[in-house]
Amino acid sequence: MKSRLAWMSILLLSALMIGLGIASAAQAQQVLTPQEQLGKDLFYDQNLSLNNNLACAACHGPEVGYTGPDQLINLHGAVYEGSISGAFGNRKPPSAAYAGDSPILHFDTVAGWIGGMFWDGRASGDVLGDPLAEQAKGPFLNPKEQAIPDAQTLCQKVAASSYSVLATQVLGTLNCIDAATVSMVYNDIGRSIAAYERTLEVSSFTSRFDGFWDKAKMKGMDVTQISMVNWEKYKSLGLNNDQLRGLAVFNTKGTCSSCHTLTEGSAGYPLFTDFSYDNLGIPKNLENPATIANPSWADPGLGGYLQARGEPEAVYSTEIGKFKVPTLRNVDLRPSPTFVKAYGHNGYFKSLEEIVHFYNTRDVLPWPAPEVTANMNTAIGNLRLNKTQEQWIVEFMKTLSDGTIQ
Ligand code: HEC
Ligand code: HEC
User: Fold this and answer.
1) The domain 34-197 belongs to what CATH superfamily?
2) Which residue, 10, 79, 122, 259, is most buried by CB atoms nearer than 10 A?
């Protein structure tokens, strides 16, 4: 009797341990540090805007891969309204996920300008040593975004928030009076949001591609070397034939991986960007309010920022019209198959098919004129892909959506 009881309690205990084990493995991804949790609270707080109506998430929705979540906007001008009604930015929101590896903006003699945050790199990272944290400070005081008058008001809003206890724990006493404290709090707000954006909750690496990447790695196979000649060797690792052939074209004839690189980032997975800058010659989006207000306006991109910060003409003139290579992670993530997303810095393209067709045929079909003709990349534009190959590339990009790992 005694031994049976002991046996039963061992059984019970091990069942409990297994149960706990499973729970802790599943939670491992979700448990946020206080700083990360604060970052999340800040990211979703509408009250941190002039009219208490706009959070970061309004322009960076998780359901679409942390980019613009409103399909009516995506279908047209693709730029989002700020807290003040009628105030619009002039670019499409890029993803706020997977951006944490972008280095401080710098010039590389081989690759040119690299790093920073925003389409034009202007959150360079020079101030905080981290472009992502520096970026996160911007929207709160941007009159076209959250439009709060100053950092002191932001500090006061955080002090009055529902998560003020956590905020005090992470940021220190929220004395929002003296300038030095306010400035420290403001910096740490930026760092907290960046910490959250870097968590597995936001940048989760759970796409079908990531599963494939892991399996290939376990077999000692190098995914960066996949081509039309050897792609069949990569079968049964989680991608179907069309997706595999898409990756092969992406890597070779399509030239995509020369910018949307397969090089491992800090988490051990590719980010599909080398953080460099290019002018692809994307046409103007005529529905962008900035273009409607001034039809001759052309977005100067990186060159505009370099000019504004006082670089000599020889430095900035070769960068006019260039934009940072965006990650392709979650580029197809959408709440339903018919939901429209916009692509490119101005959201000119409304589907992946369209933008791939543009890369393939920019120089051979009558596309509308580029927004900026200077400094255009000439490696793309006439890739000589057939319709099937274009579609394969699209099928491959669809494997980059989080939550689809097998
Ligand atoms: C009104 C819409 C809007 C709001 C609100 C907004 N953003 Fe953005 N976000 C954008 C746009 C547009 C860009 C690109 C701007 C540019 O390049 O000039 C951008 C760029 C970014 C980037 C740069 C990504 C990259 O790869 O360069 C990050 C990160 C980001 N936002 C995070 C945030 C955070 C954090 C908040 C809240 C503090 C926020 N955004 C609030 C629209 C918005
Ligand atoms: C020379 C570098 C380069 C090459 C090669 C390249 N891209 Fe890009 N890609 C960029 C840049 C830069 C942008 C942003 C340009 C802009 O908005 O003006 C971009 C944007 C995109 C976007 C839009 C993403 C978004 O979130 O808006 C997609 C999709 C894309 N590229 C896919 C591809 C595919 C597929 C290929 C191969 C056929 C490819 N790219 C080849 C540099 C490159």
Assistant:
1) Cytochrome c-like domain (1.10.760.10)
2) 79
